């Protein structure tokens, strides 16, 4: 009887040890990366089509993010402790993914996040691209109380020339960032590329490259270290270049519901919940913002190459983060 009890006790101990090992493995970076499932690569449409996979990620949290202040290109801070931990989760998620190149903006928060991701891919290049910097909020950088609702209303109503005092407009950001993105896609040989950039920049870029306008930029959300997965098909034979595909973002696994999402300037900044009404021009001018009265007839200057077809597979994906980060 004693031998039987001893045997059962030994088996129980072994089972507990096995469960502990499994739990440790689940929490380890090597196994956690398996939990980040990504859809298969889009198949080339023709023999002359090249498909590249890009991961458009936002940087980890900084102290200005934690304080809920506007953080544009005029604020250049490193990650805080939570931001570092978020970046480590992103690193572990991408550890088992084939990565040929990592690209970041020149701002410290993006560069630091990219360097942490690179720890699992030590042999690949980390390329810094200054054109991928965050929008400049000008005099509003670092502020909590600014005329944010006024500017947001102008953007909602289609005035993409509007900007914060001494800042940048969405059209200006699009004009520097989107051509840089297309040039990287066309001229770099790598096919699996991780971008680590910024929230408002991602809103502008995704609206521009997916819809060829900025009308949808306020429909996107980008939490710290989120992943936007897009497959980029590049057709080299002009005879195969046809009409652009229709993009239905409502079918993505990551929700894209423009009706239920409250527009914001920055995903870490809370704006007073006031009615989104048209602001009088005189009030807008008093705020120090720049108003272009001819914006309704303005045409963006960005040229979208006809050889590109972009297929979004995930938006604002945060499965790699624990619940306390989400």
From TrEMBL:
<feature type="active site" description="Proton donor/acceptor">
    <location>
        <position position="134"/>
    </location>
</feature>
<dbReference type="InterPro" id="IPR013078">
    <property type="entry name" value="His_Pase_superF_clade-1"/>
</dbReference>
<dbReference type="InterPro" id="IPR029033">
    <property type="entry name" value="His_PPase_superfam"/>
</dbReference>
<dbReference type="InterPro" id="IPR001345">
    <property type="entry name" value="PG/BPGM_mutase_AS"/>
</dbReference>
<dbReference type="InterPro" id="IPR050275">
    <property type="entry name" value="PGM_Phosphatase"/>
</dbReference>
<dbReference type="Pfam" id="PF00300">
    <property type="entry name" value="His_Phos_1"/>
</dbReference>
<feature type="binding site">
    <location>
        <position position="109"/>
    </location>
    <ligand>
        <name>substrate</name>
    </ligand>
</feature>
<feature type="active site" description="Tele-phosphohistidine intermediate">
    <location>
        <position position="59"/>
    </location>
</feature>
<dbReference type="GO" id="GO:0016791">
    <property type="term" value="F:phosphatase activity"/>
</dbReference>
<protein>
    <recommendedName>
        <fullName>Phosphoglycerate mutase</fullName>
    </recommendedName>
</protein>
<feature type="binding site">
    <location>
        <begin position="58"/>
        <end position="65"/>
    </location>
    <ligand>
        <name>substrate</name>
    </ligand>
</feature>
């Amino acid at each position: 009887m004693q031998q039987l009890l001893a045997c059962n006790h030994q088996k129980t101990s072994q089972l507990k040890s096995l469960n502990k090992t499994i739990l440790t493995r689940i929490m380890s970076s090597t196994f956690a990366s398996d939990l980040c499932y990504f859809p298969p690569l889009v198949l080339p449409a023709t023999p002359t089509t090249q498909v590249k996979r890009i991961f458009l990620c936002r940087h980890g949290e900084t102290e200005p993010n934690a304080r809920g202040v506007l953080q544009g290109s005029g604020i250049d801070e490193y990650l805080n402790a939570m931001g570092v931990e978020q970046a480590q989760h992103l690193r572990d998620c991408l550890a088992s993914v084939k990565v040929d190149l990592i690209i970041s903006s020149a701002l410290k928060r993006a560069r630091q996040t990219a360097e942490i991701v690179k720890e699992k891919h030590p042999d690949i290049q980390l390329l810094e691209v200054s054109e991928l910097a965050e929008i400049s909020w000008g005099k509003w950088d670092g502020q909590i109380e600014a005329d944010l609702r006024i500017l947001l209303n102008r953007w909602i109503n289609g005035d993409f020339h509007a900007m914060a005092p001494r800042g940048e407009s969405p059209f200006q950001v699009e004009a520097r960032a989107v051509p840089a993105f297309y040039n990287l896609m066309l001229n770099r040989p790598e096919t699996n590329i991780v971008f680590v950039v910024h929230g408002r920049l991602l809103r502008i870029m995704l609206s521009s490259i997916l819809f060829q306008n900025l009308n949808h930029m306020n429909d996107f959300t980008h939490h710290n270290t989120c992943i936007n997965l897009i497959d980029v098909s590049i057709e080299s034979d002009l005879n195969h270049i046809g009409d652009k595909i229709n993009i239905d973002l409502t079918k993505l696994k990551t929700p894209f519901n423009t009706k239920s999402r409250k527009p914001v300037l920055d995903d870490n900044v809370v704006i007073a919940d006031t009615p989104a009404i048209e602001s009088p021009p005189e009030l807008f001018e008093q705020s120090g913002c720049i108003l272009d009265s001819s914006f309704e007839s303005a045409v963006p200057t960005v040229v979208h190459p006809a050889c590109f077809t972009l297929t979004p597979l995930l938006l604002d994906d945060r499965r790699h983060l624990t619940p306390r980060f989400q």
